[in-house]
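Hello,

Our lab assistant flagged a job as stuck in the queue for most of the afternoon. It eventually completed. Since we weren't sure the result was trustworthy after the delay, we are filing this so someone can double-check. Below is the sequence as submitted and the structure that was eventually returned. Let us know if re-running is recommended.
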Amino acid sequence: MQELLRELVLADAPPGREKEVREIVIRELEPLVDDLRVDSMGNVISTKSGQKDSPFMLIAHQDEDWALLLTHIDDNGFLRFTRLVGHRWDILGRRVVIHGNQGKKKGVVGLAAPHIIPMKELQQGYRPDFEKMFIDCGAPNAEEARSMGFEVGQYVTAEKHFVELANGRLRGNCFDDRVGIVSMIETFRRIHNHKLAMNVVGVASVQEELGTRGAGPAAFGVDPEFAIALDVSPTGDHPNTKPGLVPVKLGQGPALLMADQFHVTSQVMNIWISAVAQKHQLPLQEVALRAPVHFGTDAAAVEVTKSGSQTTAVLVPTRYFHTANSIVQKSDLESTIQLLVKCLESLDELGE
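-- returned structure --
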C-alpha cells in the first residue's frame, strides 16, 4: 500500500492532465474488476459485479491540489503564471516542474535574497505581490525559453517528494487525493474474491479541484443508488487552528463527513457507516465542514446528478493539504480501507 501511494504521489496529475495517475489506476484496478472503461473526460470507471444491479459507487479524484498555469514569457526568459489550485502563500521559492512541449523541465519560483530587499520593506513585513512572481527556468531570454518548449497555457506542478517521518507519519505532495485513490484501489483488492450484494463501481474522477467537473458526468453514466466520496479532511491538531473548528486528528481513523459548504450528506449512509464501524470496532471520527471552513468533495456533484443518490464522504485526516508538503498517518489510511471493506461486505444491511 505504501509503495503504491509513493508511486501515485511521485506522478504528476494537475487538473485536466491526469494521464500519469490514470495509467497507474488502470494498471492496478483492471485485474480486480469485471469491467473497466475510461470515459471521454478521462474518468476511470471500474465495476465489480454483485447480486443486485443497482450500483454502489466509490469515487476518488485523480487530479492534485497544487498547480500553476503559465500566462506569459517575458523578454528576459522568466515565466509568469497564475494560480490554478493551491495556496497563494505557498508559492515563493517553490521548486517546480514545467510541463512543456519538450517534456518536463525544472525551475524555481524566484525569491530575492533578503540582502537586496530595502530594510524598510523588511521591517514592514515584506511580501511580494502575487502578480509580480515569476519562474526562473534557466533561460536568458524569451527566445530561448520558447526553444525549450515553453508557451502560454502550460501547466506547472510542484517538484514531488515522499518521505516517511516518525510515528508512522508520511510527508509528501498531493495526498489530496492520492490517499483516496489508494483507499479505493486497496479496497477493491481486498474484496476481489468476495460475493457482494450490489454492483460496486469505483470511479477515479478528473478535475475535482476545478469544481468537481468529472464527477457529474461519471455519476450520470453510473447512476448510483448510493455513493461514497473518498477524499481528505483538514485537521485541527496543530498550532494556529481555532479550537473546535475542525475536531479531526491524525491517528484517530477516517472522518465521516456530515456536511460541507455545498451540501448535507446522506443520513441513511451516515447511520449505516457508523453502525458498521461500531460493529467491527473500527475508529471513526465525525466532521462538519461548513462556513467559515471552505471545503467540498465530489460527493455534492454525485448527489444531484440524474435522479440523485444517497451520498456521503469518508475522509483521511491530512495536515497542510493544498500546499506542497502535507502529512498523513499510515494507520488512518489502513483504518479507512478496513472500514470500506466492512461496508461493502454489509451492503445487504444498507437501508434497513
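-- support follow-up --
The delay was a queue issue, not a problem with the job. The result is valid. The first strand starts at residue 35 and ends at 38. Residues 168 and 330 are 6 Å apart (CA to CA).
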